[in-house]
Amino acid sequence: MRCILRHILWMTSMACLVMMLVACHDETGLIDDTLGSDETVMLVLNTDVIRASRSTETDLPNEKMRTLRTVILHQDGTVEHNKFLDFGENAQTDHSSQLFRVKPNETKVIYLIANERNVNDLQSEKLNAFEVGSNGFKDYIDDLSFIPSYNLSIPMSAKYDLEIKEKGQECQFYLVRAATKFTFRFNNMRAYPVKINSVTVSEIAEQIYLMPHKKTPTMLFTEKNGTEKEYFWIDWLQKVTDESQVNPDDKELTDKRGWIMDYDIPHTISKAVTINAPTNFQVVGITYDTGVPKSGTAVYPVFYLPESKNLKSDEKVDGEQEYTMTVNLIDNKDNTSHSFSCPFDNLKALFRNTHVVVDVNFLEKGITVDVIPYSEVILEPEFGLGYKSAEPENP
Q: Which distant-in-sequence residues (6+ apart) come within 8 Å of 255 by Cβ?
């Protein structure tokens, strides 16, 4: 059996904006960009959910927006706009050209919240109560945490600081899904089917903040000419995502570009989370087509977990992290139960919107564990499948 952590994929993220790096431009031609009679200017907001991975997969229904709330605060923290949109069954990955008349010559704080109905204990009536001119929205929402249930549409959020001058602006903003995503792909090169009972991931936080708590607003990116450039971190994530789509098999890309480790999670417990397989979830055995072997394949149902922060060392507040997966299965050859554990050695952080894709290969005898980008680790053949005892050792 060969366990491969094939990709660590950035999905997307929200932004604590560095104003000079905002994806905004002055409006010309499309709308009146001058002060109105009410001494306001036009702000046009375009909101996207960046695609989930470097692959060609389509967005799953629960990874889209079913609702979108936009709250704009004046510089003094009072509400200037509180707009709620309900897309119903027509879920969206983007929504363009929201128009707002806003007061110029101040720095706004703009909140975007999608799928708020799936945030436990967060009631739309409570958010609706923050009417124009009211105070307290920032204090209420910034540190709001919840225990997520990802059976329905995934909550998403973003928070931007935006300087408004005396001309209209159009801005491109992005939402981040308040979740991490796991995909397990099984490949069976044995003569017999393998039944998967469950997959467990260790040290997962129970609660998650609705709003991301990234500490610093920029990240460094090494350009092709070797120079380093500082990007607002959502732009950095977008560049890394675009790069990974062009180079899907680059095993060293994530380490090369770096990890987002400087973030906070709520004070909460961490635990092992077990995702049970569907009834009779099997990976069929090897077959032959005109003498050519063809392995059986199956993809485990995608699942989502809260962002977490299980540090390797208590001495570093924002250091490397560590997590472990365990797969429980039944070997159909002798109908015995087995389990194997594999550390995510190169999963150095589990920031929200990270997508972890794991390839697991079942071989005829023994197990090899290869957690990319680190070198292959060879385990003894008696570990796991092929071992005669019903209770194999763990690595």
A: 346, 348, 373
| Radius of gyration for the chain, computed over Cα atoms and rounded to the nearest angstrom | 24
Nearest by Cα to 24 from 84, 85, 100, 86 = 100
Instruction: Give tens-digit pLDDT for 260-281.
Output: 899 999 999 999 999 999 999 9
The span from the CA of 286 to the CA of 288, in Å, is: 7
Which residue spans of the chain are classified as CATH 2.60.40? Answer: 13-176
180 DSSP β-pair partners: 305
Beta carbons of 148 and 180 less than 8 angstroms apart: no
Q: What is the pLDDT of residues 226-247, one digit of tens each?
A: 899 998 777 777 777 777 666 6
Contact by Cβ (8 Å): 169, 43: yes
| Cα gap 220→172, rounded to integer Å | 21
Question: SS in 3 state form for the chain?
Answer: CEEEEEEEEECCCCCCCCHHHCCEEECCCCCCCCCCCCCCEEEEEEEEECCCCCCCCCCCHHHCECEEEEEEECCCCCEEEEEEEECCCCCECEEEEEEEEECCCEEEEEEEEECHHHCCCCCHHHHHCCCCCCCCHHHHHCCCEECCCCCCCCCEEEEEEEEECCCCEEEEEEEEECCEEEEEEEEECCCCCEEEEEEEEEEEECCEECCCCECCCEEEEECCCCCEEEEEHHHHHHHHHHHHHHCCCCCCHHHHHCCCCCECCCCCCEEEEEEECCCCCEECCCEEECCEEECEEEECCCEEECCECCECCCCCCCCCECCEEEEEEEECCCCEEEEEEEECCCCCCECCCEEEEEEEEECCCCCEEECCCCCCEECCCCCCCCCCCCCCCCC
**Whole-prediction pTM:** 0.85
Q: How far is CA 357 from CA 216, 303, 326, 354, in A?
A: 27, 11, 15, 10
Q: Can you name the residues that pair with 5 across neighbouring β-strands? A: 358
CA distances from 99 to 14, 163, 244 (A): 21, 17, 34
The mean pLDDT of 109-128, rounded to a whole number, is 93
CATH class of 13-176: mainly beta
